[in-house]
Design goal:
Layout: H1 2-27, H2 52-59, E1 63-67, H3 91-102, E2 107-111, H4 118-130, E3 142-144, H5 149-162, E4 166-171, E5 177-183, H6 197-200, H7 219-238, E6 246-250, E7 258-259, H8 270-285, H9 315-320, H10 358-367
Parallel strand pairs: 1-2, 3-4
Antiparallel strand pairs: 4-5, 5-6, 6-7
């Protein structure tokens, strides 16, 4: 009897999900782009050549692979782009229907599973290395928008092993700060190179989360961090501006700290250490740039009044007033030199001692 009740509950849940899925399809015009706009074949004349968006289309960012195992809940409505009628759907399904309606030009591949489990991790790696726009080629970039350390480490492990560039992002549990981080295996610090405080202090991350409290529930902070992440993605893919390796956001002070972090040679991830060695070999194989030392041109400001500085000492006098410079280590010089004694100098005038006292000499001066 208990088993029958359990099966009945499972069937009810399946029907609820199917109903939510159907409501989502109807709300979004069929879910396959049929009720949305048509595919764009030609760019609008408003998009000028100087606009990076044209390059983005040329680059071909038109496929997204989505991974998540969670379901849409009403509690998600305050900060995510889901809609109430999508409650009960998997987040990847709901995201696909919404995004497909916004832009039917994009191809979607969704996977509703937990990437941290052993059975799913290998498939996750396979799709990263073979799920590019051209099947069999790797994806261009991996974006991490997860909310826990375990998932970040799974992505970090996969990308280190594959040599896959990725961008990590996150918002603090108090929802007033966040960050983004570009990770290029071997070149920059991976997520394991500089572990967060909860790991460095050997604190169980689960003990920091309160039951029933969802971290990062402030939509403004999430919007700011998401915008910074996407902007960094565009700069990285289209090669314009300065790409940030780490950029933080402190909402309390409107503070945006930025830095670059080198990989840790003693990183716990062996694939990270391996990627570091590979990167060193690539750098060593690059041709050495020729260093051309140019003489600095002396630039004089305009002299409206024709004022000139003329030395009162001739070159010959200056030479005679200087002595030999001692042999000193490189980078050290003397403040002045002692002039040598000239042989043709005037002879010193001497006065013979008469033996008279000072009083006698003063008396003679008075009588003169």
């Amino acid at each position: 009897m208990a088993e029958s009740v359990e099966r009945l509950q499972q069937r009810v849940e399946e029907l609820e999900r199917e109903l939510a899925l159907e409501r989502s399809r109807r709300a979004l015009g069929g879910g396959d782009g049929g009720g949305g706009r048509v595919r764009i074949e030609k760019m609008s004349p408003e998009v000028v050549d100087s606009n990076p968006y044209r390059e983005l289309l040329t680059y071909g960012v038109n496929q997204l692979l989505l991974f998540d195992y969670d379901k849409v809940e009403l509690a998600n409505m305050n900060r995510l782009f889901f809609q109430p009628h999508q409650a009960g759907l998997s987040k990847v399904q709901a995201a696909e229907y919404t995004l497909r309606n916004i832009n039917p030009d994009v191809l979607f591949e969704v996977h509703n599973y937990n990437i941290t489990t052993v059975e799913n991790f290998q498939h996750f790696m396979d799709r990263i290395s073979n799920g590019g726009l051209e099947e069999g080629k790797p994806v261009d970039l991996v974006l991490s928008c997860v909310d826990n350390f375990e998932a970040r480490m799974a992505i970090n492990t996969a990308c280190n092993e594959l040599g896959q560039t990725w961008m990590e992002s996150g918002v603090s549990e108090n929802a007033v700060s966040g960050h983004i981080q570009l990770i290029i295996p071997g070149e920059s610090a991976c997520f394991a190179c500089a572990p967060p405080l909860v790991v460095a202090a050997n604190i169980d991350e689960k003990t920091l989360k309160r039951e029933g409290v969802c971290a990062a529930s402030l939509p403004t902070t999430m919007g700011v961090v998401a915008g910074i992440l996407v902007q960094n993605v565009l700069k990285f893919l289209l090669n314009f501006g300065t790409v940030s390796f780490y950029l933080g956001y402190n909402a309390m002070q409107d503070f945006f700290p930025t830095m670059s972090m080198k990989p840790n040679p003693q990183c716990d991830d062996r694939n990270c250490r391996k990627q570091q060695e590979e990167y060193k070999k690539k750098v060593a194989a690059l041709p050495k740039p020729e260093v051309v030392q140019e003489e600095e041109e002396i630039i004089h400001e305009d002299n409206e009044w024709g004022i000139e500085l003329v030395s009162e000492v001739s070159e010959e006098e200056l030479k005679n007033s200087s002595g030999p410079v001692p042999d000193l280590p490189e980078g050290i010089t003397v403040a002045y030199t002692i002039p040598e004694k000239q042989e043709d100098s005037v002879a010193e005038v001497t006065v013979e001692d008469s033996g008279e006292s000072l009083e006698d000499l003063m008396a003679k001066m008075k009588n003169m």
